[in-house]
Structures are given as C-alpha cells and as structure tokens.
Amino acid sequence: MGTSISLGNYEPDEVPEPWEEYQFRDLSRAYYTQSINMAFKSGDINLVHCITALTSLELNKCFTDSAKNIDIDKVPRKCYLSALTIYMDNKGKIVNGEKVLTEFKLIYDYSEKRHLLDTSYKIKKEKEACIDAKELHKNILENKTVTFRSGKIYVLKKFHEYIKQASLCNRRTDVNYTNLKVAENRDELNKTLNLLGITSSAVGFIPGKAPVIADTAMKILGMALSVEPRFSLAEYTYPIKGPVYLDETTTIQEFKRKNNNGYISSQQGEQQPRFEKKDILKELEDYGLKITTK
Question: Helices 158-172 and 133-143 meet at what angle, rounded to 10?
Fold first, then answer.
C-alpha cells in the first residue's frame, strides 16, 4: 500500500512511513476475514449487527547494517505491525475502517540463536480511524483508496480484490463472505453461486474448506486489531466464524536503501516479491509476543 496525504484540493503528497528510514526492511503481508458482532448506535439504542471484517496485516522488520557484526542477521530489529481492517455489512456496504500500528523490538538471543521480543522496549500502539462510511465505501470500491480522518490516503492493491469479492458475495448471496470461506458443503455453495450467475473466482471461492487459524494466533490477530494494552476477545469482537486466511500464501519482500557516494536513496525492492506458506501470526508467537489477560 502506498501512502500520501491530501490537503484540500491539492495533489496528495507522499508521506514516508516510519519503516522507510531504515537501511534494510523485510516485509510480510497476509489477509484475513472474520464474521463479528459489532454494535452501532441508533438513537439511544446500541444495535448489534453481524459484520464482515477484512484485515490486511503487514509485518515490517527493520534493521541497519552493523560494522561491529559480520553477520547482519544478528542485528536488532525494530518491528512495525500494521493492521488495516475494513468492516462491511451483509448488504456489501462498507460501514467502518481503521488502521492500528503496533511497534515493538526484537533482539538476538545468542543462547537460542534467534530473534526474540525485547521485553525492555515498551510496545507502542497507534490507531487511525477512516472517514465516514458512505465516502469510504465509494473511495475503496471505485478509487481503490482508503482515506483517514487525518488526511492520509492509502492506495490499495491486492487487498482491494478481497474487499470487492466480499462486497459482491454479501450483496448478492444470503451467505456471509466469511461463512462462505469456512462452509463445509462446498458443492452446494458452488451450485448456489452458479444459479446467481457468480463465478467461483469472483468471490475467491477455492475448493476445500478454508483453515481457521489457531486459538493463540487468533488472540495475536486480536491484539493487532485492538488499541488496548490487554486484549479481551469478548470485549472487542466476538467471532461467529473465523478468522480465516483469505489466501494460504504470504507475500514476502526485502527492501534496501542504497548509498551512492553519500546519497541515501529511498527504499527499493531488492527483488520481485515471493509467495510462501508462511504464517505471520505463528512467527509473532515464536518471537514471544505474549497475550496477557486480566
């Protein structure tokens, strides 16, 4: 996702993300969907609706070259976990959106020979709310952009395809997008889609039931979505179905800033992105990103 900021009618200016200042960056990106209960205020009454929540989760591991250490893999890493979530009702309308940025640090553990969470570094969280629903819906589906109340604009790429699939599914079927992913009777669902004139590829329909993520991984995803220091599943969102992976593959990409005679360039991809069956949530669990409860 590219980032810019809009000031009135002027052309948007590019806004550097905090991870772009580092010489090296490893990016992992994956996508998830879940059905949740969300309360909306109607007058003085809070009405609870079943909502489809789609999340683009990015893990940026940043580090700089170390003249004191030949093996760059042992250099500490500043990490930024960015969770952009779009909420959609069962009519395919986008009703809300937000991005939560979690910052933490990894240090190299020589005894275990791997990076682990630096418990001395305070985890920081920052939340940005999207603009109101009607304009947000149009911007996302028609312009492939997400606009925040701060003026920041994100340009969507692959995530836009999943949002479009979910909107089509929720609008034209009686099956919530997440439920379609986890449905046991795939043949029956395929017949229903065909009767409605929807090709299976149009809603990301793939053979076999989508795997529901493990309980610990689900709590880590919940922590990435919540701005509270402690995550309570029941208080924030209560999953009816899911969360599940929208795609079994995770995008992996390495970035580097080059030094040309003292001129430091902007971060550029070292190579084309690759796609692996790698679980970001399991990786975070292995680092020791613990979920504490009251």
Answer: 120
* Distances 71 to 66, 86, 108 between C-alpha atoms, Å: 8, 40, 11
Per-residue pLDDT reduced to its tens digit, 133-166: 999 999 999 999 999 998 889 999 999 999 999 9
Q: Say if strands 24-42 and 13-14 run parallel, antiparallel, or are unpaired.
A: unpaired
Question: How many CB atoms within 10 Å of residue 75?
Answer: 18
Q: Rounded to whole angstroms, how far apart are CA atoms 150 and 115?
A: 35
Report which of 44, 233, 240, 3 is spatially closest to residue 128, judged by C-alpha positions: 3
State how beta strands 2-5 and 152-155 pair. Answer: antiparallel
Residue 237 CB burial class (10 angstroms; 0-12, 13-18, ≥19): buried
Per-residue burial over 154-193, b = 16 or more CB atoms within 10 Å of its CB, e = otherwise? bebeebbebbbbbbbbbebbebbbbbbbbbeeeeebeebb
**How distant is the alpha carbon of residue 147 from its chain centre?**
16
pLDDT in tens, 63-114: 987 666 677 788 899 999 999 999 999 889 999 999 999 999 999 999 999 9
Spatial separation of the C-alpha atoms in residues 102 and 80, rounded to whole Å: 6
Pairing of strands 45-63, 77-88: antiparallel
Going from the C-alpha of 199 to that of each of 33, 35, 179, 248, the distances in angstroms are 20, 22, 17, 20
* 8 A C-beta contact, residue 160 and residue 246: no
Distance (Å, whole) CA 278 – CA 57: 13
The three-state secondary structure class of 287 is helix
